[in-house]
Design goal:
The chain is mainly β. It contains 2 helices and 99 strands.
């Protein structure tokens, strides 16, 4: 049994080793994740599959490396395609629903074993993409197969990633790491991904890799990641990451438009960064870079980089209708669309300017179409969260040169429909100046999405000849999505000779008349034309004022109208459309009833009609947030509010208030009846039925309004009245006797309580509204108010407009009191005694034969009242007058603030000295109460400005405290946009230059004086130097240029002066070099750095074979060198030893003397010398060899002198032991070998002469 078990274990072990061996990859090794073994997840709870030779975390973890593509779309993380082709595969770390009980933040992906035995300088290359707010880092580690130690190579953290990746479309980044320390080993590479959240899925944590390669490091490596900076309209600075040193130069290839990069222009540069010039403005460029390491040794092209040149100034006239190719609506409602690159947008992630029409059109906000054509594009403000925070959005135009315009003006069209709209502020800036306000508007500017766009025109004549740009700021109110304020057809052009009107409005509409208003463009006469909508013939009229009442219209008819300025004969402006209006319905005659059951006139709300509707003869104040609409048995009310049916039949109609969303605030809304003539009724009365179920109901108020007069409150129902949607309707009766013979309009005004977290349960419903004769005359409900020490006011609710009042001290007998008549349910009783209780009786007279019973109310007058001082002062210079306006004051005393006083309700006084005076007006009444009122007055002398200042770099202290004047206020302008308002301000400038300082002094009288002076500041200097070295001689160049009195100290006692200097050190060592200089303002600067000198190392080494055996060949090596601190041995068998050992032993696995051994002698300055020997050397001295090589070192050609003999071959090896020239045949005599194609460095030349090898070390420079 034990033998069988051992056999099974052995078989399994052999299978495992065989599978492991099958997974070992040789170099060069690549992986682009496009193979069929890489299978992406098929759903949110599936992890896909990867090749068996790769390893990842257990698949039950909820954060895992997977193959593309992700199972769900997430625009906030990950790349939008692979690096290889854009449509291939890649690997990415992703959160997913694994069913695990614990959450993970780190996940690993491990490559198959990779054999580096054939590599001398192996390296790792891969591309990565790290876009997402939850990305933490990507870490790369390596281990030798058979060990458990993972060696850290590099970590790309979230700061680096956020700077490199701003969207899914950000280009992939290339990364390279040396694997030279693992040369000759078999290794595995591990990619560790970390996120900063531990949710199972839907996190923004996609870290992706692609196009992995393990390869030998090329002699001239590929540059990485070219980027552009300091981009202007015609130039850009291009920089890139280089893995090469001491390059001869570089080439940049660039193209634009449809030109392929392979056909692009190539320019050669000598520095990194390099400056490209002569570019076209507002152009997208593609670039790539390659480096020239030596003659004939040029790298491959880098990956592509892109940049866009800046926009040059536009020349007016300028228009923008948002239809150009640079503008594009987003396909996702909460993501910003494409903004023309010549425009600038600023804002936050959840509120921004974008391009319309939106992918989803809200019915509660935004325009129904653009202004230009109705079907085009426009710019609008978008808010994607009710909790949006951060910078309010700004939309900034390009720079526009107005030099071509004589009378420039800005015009644009706007549309502001939505709930809880914010503020639009328009600013202008000229080049070199600050932003100045042009115009602003706030709140709701349009009543519906289909309302006509409005135009605003701003005069820019103050900017004629300037170059300007315009900024549109929108600060939306919090708590609402519905803030899509829109802009279209922005234009800057010359103002016409006859400017057109603007801000058209309909300020009042009647049954047969309408009042039209506008703001004129400058003329004093206007032409107006109007017509019924859908007809062709215009009716014309004129006006000499900027408004016009249009009579003789038809009732309940929609009209369109236009207006234009008339500047003179033959000189008129363009027509400007005014908003359409609809005349009111004609009068209804009482009795009047409405049961709301006509669904065509009272449509209810549903998914397709979110605002419902009301009868055209009725008016509602709102269609958003909270509004009145029709309701019926099909209406779906929010849970917890509204009736289940109407009052009339249970299946008919009613009117009710609707909240547009759950998260709304306190507000109110109105519903108005048509005009109703009450002349047919003797005792008019309003009755209606109401249903008020919902905890967010505040109240329902009923107003009565006569044409041309304010609305009057006649009744209030407060709070929730029913406790369920099926509870019975209740009736309310309101007397309209006060309006007998009038024509009135009833207003139902509903109020919603927004104090809770939710406020949508506020559906107030009304039904069966009726105005008819009153049937009873009930006793009035009387209230005493406005009670003073000698008067009181009585108000009551009743059904009569005529009443009788009798009053007297409490307990009097009716018939013996004071009788007065009263109208309109109000009476004011005067001549009462203070601190006395009174009885008052009120009786309504509804008709000549119908009176109510008497109602008693009791009240007590107040005690003698306190007094409050009222009055004013007027003065000129030293003379001042005081005016007391108290009607209940018995005496007034004026205290003038300088120790003097006078008595009288009015009084005059003259001051004898300057100052700011506190004047007290003190009043007294007969009850002994007193009160005072403070006034202030300034009597001022001449204001004289005096100032000093002191400079410290870019910081300046100003002092104007020695200025003279009365109670001075100080206003400074520092010439760079900065200001201050104190006597001794400090101001720090951001740049040097000459600034004009302006000081305005204003005294307490409002008198002012202004003074200006110029101030010159020198730039801040960062002193430094660069150096080059030849042997022990260093050449130094100070930076920046243009300073004065450069002085050098070289650290060895030597000194020099001038921007450039050199010094030859006589000894070896480290020296501190110091340079000093001063600027034109006398500021002194100093900079120090260390330099070091070293001898070039020199020497040789010997060797002897110690032993040979089955374990290999053991060889001792001994080096004898001067000036060397490190000894790097390269044994010729693919291994090396780097350290400080000059004597060392090495064991070769294969017994042969054909190994070439290279020794690098390295000093502390980094200089190196290579010594080469082959183990089969037989010790023949160079002077005894029949072969001579010269010159050494060489630059182009190698001369070889050979005696006559057999055929001779030449092989050449570089410092890494690689064969670079192979079997070059050489004839007897003097031969020349062309070495120009080889890079500078150390080489070993092998000459095979008469079948014997001879080795020579040479150096190419």
């Amino acid at each position: 049994m034990k033998r069988r078990l051992l056999l099974i274990v052995a078989v399994l072990f052999a299978l495992g080793q065989n599978l492991k061996a099958q997974c070992i990859q040789s170099t060069p090794y690549t992986e682009n994740f496009d193979g069929s073994s890489w299978q992406g997840p098929s759903s949110w709870n599936n992890s896909g599959s990867i090749p068996s030779c790769w390893t990842r975390n257990i698949t039950t973890a909820n954060y895992l490396w997977m193959a593309s593509d992700p199972s769900f779309a997430n625009t906030l993380s990950g790349p939008d395609g692979d690096h290889t082709t854009g449509t291939g595969g890649y690997a990415f770390a992703e959160g997913w629903s694994s069913g695990a009980s614990s959450n993970a933040t780190v996940t690993n992906l491990i490559t198959p074993p990779i054999d580096l035995s054939g590599d001398t300088l192996p390296r790792l290359v891969f591309y990565y993409h790290m876009y997402g707010s939850d990305v933490e880092w990507l870490n790369v580690r390596v281990r030798v197969v058979g060990t458990n130690t993972w060696v850290n190579l590099h970590t790309i953290n979230s700061t680096t990633a956020s700077n490199q990746f701003s969207s899914q479309t950000s280009p992939w980044r290339k990364h390279t790491e040396s694997l030279s320390q693992f040369a000759g080993d078999t290794v595995q590479i591990r990619f560790n991904a970390k996120r900063d959240v531990n949710f199972s899925w839907w996190t923004n944590s996609r870290i992706a890799i692609d196009d992995i390669a393990v390869e030998e490091t090329p002699s001239c490596d590929q540059p990485l990641n070219p980027v552009a900076s300091s981009v202007t309209s015609s130039s850009a600075s291009i920089s890139w990451s280089s893995l090469n040193s001491n390059t001869l130069g570089s080439q940049i290839q660039f193209s634009s438009g449809t030109t392929s990069i392979a056909n692009g222009t190539i320019n050669t540069y000598s520095s990194n960064p390099a400056t490209m010039s002569g570019l076209n403005p507002n152009t997208n460029y593609r670039i790539r870079v390659r480096e020239i390491c030596a003659v004939g040794d040029t790298s491959v092209w880098s990956n592509l980089g892109t940049f866009t040149t800046g926009c040059s100034n536009y020349i007016a006239p300028y228009t923008e209708d948002f239809e150009g190719s640079g503008w594009g609506p987003s396909s996702v409602w909460n993501v910003q669309g494409d903004i023309d690159q010549c425009w600038i947008t600023q804002g936050a992630a959840q509120k921004f300017w974008t391009v319309g029409p939106p992918v989803f059109s809200w019915t509660q906000t935004g325009p129904s179409g653009d202004h230009t054509s109705g079907s085009g594009q426009y710019a609008y403000h978008q808010k994607t969260s009710t909790l949006a925070s951060g910078t309010d959005p700004r939309l900034i135009s390009p720079w526009i040169d107005l030099d071509t315009l004589s009378s420039p003006e800005l015009s644009f069209w706007y549309h502001g429909y939505g709930q809880q709209m914010g503020d639009l502020d328009v600013y202008i800036q000229k080049q070199g100046g600050t932003w100045s306000s042009l115009w602003d508007t706030s709140g709701l500017t349009h009543a519906s999405s289909s309302a006509a766009w409005l135009e605003h025109i701003a005069d820019l004549s103050a900017y004629a000849g300037d170059t300007v740009r315009v900024r549109f700021d929108y600060s939306a109110s919090s708590g609402s999505f519905y803030t899509q304020f829109a802009l279209d057809d922005i234009k800057i052009d010359n103002a016409p000779s006859c400017a057109k009107p603007k801000n058209t409005a309909v300020t009042a509409v009647g049954v047969y008349v309408a009042q039209l208003d506008w703001v004129g463009g400058g003329a004093s006469n206007w032409q107006i034309r109007y017509r019924a909508l859908g007809t062709s013939a215009w009716s014309w009229t004129t006006s000499s004022t900027s408004n016009k009442g249009v009579p003789q219209l038809n009732a309940q008819t929609t009209y369109e109208w236009q207006v234009r300025d008339s500047c003179g004969t033959g000189d008129v402006s363009l027509w400007v459309d005014g908003p359409d209006f609809t005349t009111n319905c004609s009068f209804f005659t009482a009795p009047f009833t409405e049961n709301f059951s006509n669904s065509s006139k009272w449509p209810t709300v549903d998914f397709t009609n979110t605002t419902g509707g009301v009868d055209p003869c009725w008016l509602r104040s709102d269609t958003e947030d909270l509004f009145w609409t029709g309701g019926n048995s099909s209406t779906v009310h929010y849970s917890g509010t509204g009736p289940s049916g109407d009052h009339t039949t249970g299946t008919g109609g009613y009117a009710f208030t609707r909240s547009s969303s759950p998260w709304t605030a306190t507000t109110d809304t109105e519903l108005r009846t048509p005009l109703i003539d009450l002349d047919t009724l003797q005792s008019p009365e309003l009755t209606f039925w109401y249903h008020m179920f919902g905890p967010d109901i505040d109240k329902l108020r009923i107003f009565v309004k006569k044409p041309g007069t304010p609305a009057v409150l006649v009744n209030t129902i407060t709070g929730q009245q029913q406790n369920s949607n099926t509870a019975s309707w209740q009736k309310r009766t309101v007397s309209l006797l006060a309006y007998e013979g009038d024509t009135v309009q009833i207003i139902f005004k509903a109020y919603r309580d927004g104090s809770g977290f939710f406020s949508y349960r506020a559906d107030i419903a009304i039904d069966d509204v009726k105005i008819d004769e009153s049937a009873t005359c009930p006793a009035p409900n009387v209230l005493a108010s406005n009670i003073t020490y000698n008067s009181a006011e009585l108000n009551w609710l009743g059904r009569a407009n005529t009443s009788a009042v009798e009053y007297g001290p409490t307990g009097f007998t009716q018939g013996n009191g004071t009788m007065v008549g009263a109208q309109n349910q109000n009476a004011v009783l005067t001549g009462l005694q203070s601190s006395t209780t009174y009885d008052a009786y009120v009786q309504d007279t509804c008709t000549s034969t119908l009176t109510s019973t008497w109602t008693l109310v009791q009240f007590t007058t107040l005690a003698c009242p306190s007094i409050a001082a009222t009055g004013s002062i007027q003065g000129s210079g030293a003379s001042i007058d005081g005016y007391g306006t108290n009607s209940d004051a018995d005496s007034t005393v004026w205290f003038w603030g300088d120790g003097n006083s006078t008595i009288g309700d009015t009084s005059n006084y003259s001051y004898t000295s300057f100052g700011l005076f506190d004047i007290y007006q003190v009043v007294y009444n007969s009850c002994g109460n007193v009160d005072s009122l403070l006034h202030t007055y300034s009597y001022c002398d001449t204001t004289i400005a005096d100032y000093t200042y002191s400079i410290n770099g870019l910081s300046v202290n100003f002092d104007a405290s020695t200025s003279t004047g009365t109670a001075l206020n100080y206003y400074w302008q520092f010439g760079d946009g900065g200001t201050a308002s104190n006597a001794t301000p400090n101001h720090v400038y951001t740049a040097s230059g000459t600034y004009t300082i302006t000081l305005l002094l204003v005294n307490s009288c409002g008198d002012s004086t202004t003074t200006s002076f110029d101030l010159t500041l020198c730039p801040i200097v960062t002193l430094g130097f660069t150096s080059t070295v030849t042997g022990s001689t260093f050449s130094f160049t100070a930076t920046p240029a243009g300073l004065l009195n450069y002085q050098w100290s070289f650290g060895d006692g030597n000194t020099a002066s001038g921007m450039t200097a050199s010094n030859t050190y006589s000894t070896q060592g480290s020296f501190t070099v110091t340079v000093t200089a001063e600027d034109s303002c006398g500021n002194q600067f100093s900079y120090s750095d260390d330099v070091a000198t070293c001898d070039v190392p020199a020497g040789d080494f010997t060797f002897n074979i110690v032993s040979t055996s089955a374990n290999g060949m053991v060889v001792n090596f001994a080096a004898n060198a001067t000036g060397a601190d490190e000894y790097h041995w390269y044994w010729g068998d693919g291994t090396n030893d780097k350290g400080t050992a000059s004597n060392i032993q090495h064991t070769y696995g294969v017994i042969t003397t054909n190994y070439i051994v290279n020794l690098f002698l390295i000093n502390e300055c980094g200089d190196s010398t290579m010594v080469t020997h082959r183990l089969n050397e037989v010790g023949i001295g160079e002077q005894a060899l029949p072969i001579v090589l010269y010159p050494n070192p060489l630059s182009t050609y190698l001369n070889i002198d050979l005696p006559a003999g057999a055929e001779t071959l030449l092989n050449i090896y570089n410092a890494q032991g690689q064969l670079v020239r192979y079997q070059v045949p050489i004839d007897a005599g003097n031969q020349r070998v062309d070495m120009s194609a080889l890079s500078s460095g150390s080489y070993v030349v092998q000459v095979l002469w008469e079948n014997r090898p001879y080795y020579f070390s040479i150096t190419k420079i």
